[in-house]
Amino acid sequence: MIYGFYVAAVIALLSTVMVVTRRHPVHALLYLVVSLLAVAVIFYILGAPFTAALEVIIYAGAIMVLFVFVIMLLNLGGDAVEREGEWLKPRVWVGPSLLAAILAAILVQLVIREPVATAPMRVVAPKEVGVALFGPYLIGVEVAAFLLLAGLVGAFHLGRRMVGRQGRT
Amino acid sequence: MVPDVVDPALVLSVLMFAVGLIGLLARRDIVFMLMSIEIMLNAGGLAFVAAGARWQQPDGQVMFLFILAMAAAEVAVGLALVLRLHRLFGTVDADAADTMRG
């Protein structure tokens, strides 16, 4: 268990450094997904399975898809056909997939060998999180709803095409 | 039962935050700057979850949920700004938008 934690921590740190040092945004994005998956494994080891699931679904899923969409829309880099050819080369994806495979091995080992009840940390179940979230932190949930609405309106406003500079439509 | 993975988790969150901060300061590509902000927010969330695991309370995870909602809103607005910058200047270099430089 502890050994799995350290492997996941090294993977998280390594892939984070790779994110910052890559030249191409898509390569950095692949490593960022691996980094988030490693942090999700760490959450699981820390006894927070609900948070680990949310990390995978929302961070590594939804937010990263948003990044991919914007990078595709911007069409950064050189010629499209040449870039497609470059992406199919193994050296682009072999690093992230290797790290992700190690993470998957850790997770499988955790699930098979150690039942959740014998984890070193007491597992804080999703039910407790929900009770806390909709009990003392209810006002925070309301404010988060406001924030998401503001983000939606702001993204819509900024992403809209300007029709004429002084028309301000 | 002293949880002995909490301290390494906090150290890891500090290191990840530092890497994200270095990336934010060193890169001028605005997409990379947004990614670095994501790294830093994620490191902060890791510190919250580790602290919540230390006292075995759900509060850390609740705070992580709030950080998650904030990161989602921030990245939506930030990427809309990236699109706007690219449309106006034809580049994603953050130094291109220096109209307000004193």
Large-scale geometry of chain A: flat
Rg over CA atoms of chain B: 17 Å
What is the string of SSEs of chain B from the N terminus onward? Answer: HHH
Indicate the structural class of chain B.
Answer: mainly alpha
Poorly predicted tracts of residues of chain B? none
Q: Could you list the spans of chain A in which at least 5 consecutive residues all have pLDDT below 50?
A: none
What sort of overall outline of chain B do the alpha carbons produce when their principal axes are compared? elongated
Distance from N terminus to C terminus of chain A (CA atoms, Å) equals 58 Å
Report the biggest beta sheet of chain B as strand number plus sense, adding barrel if it closes. Answer: none
Number of helices of chain A: 7
Number of DSSP E strands of chain B: 0
At the first level of CATH, what is the class of chain B?
A: Mainly Alpha
Multimeric status of the protein: heterodimer
In percent, how much strand structure appears in the residues of chain B? under 5%
Total strand segments of chain A:
0
Query: What is the share of helical residues of chain A?
Result: over 70%
Kindly, what is the distance between the CA atoms of the first and last residues of chain B, rounded to a whole number of angstroms?
Answer: 57 Å
Tell me the number of helical segments of chain B per DSSP (H or I, 4 or more residues long): 3
- The sequence of SSEs of chain A as H and E is HHHHHHH
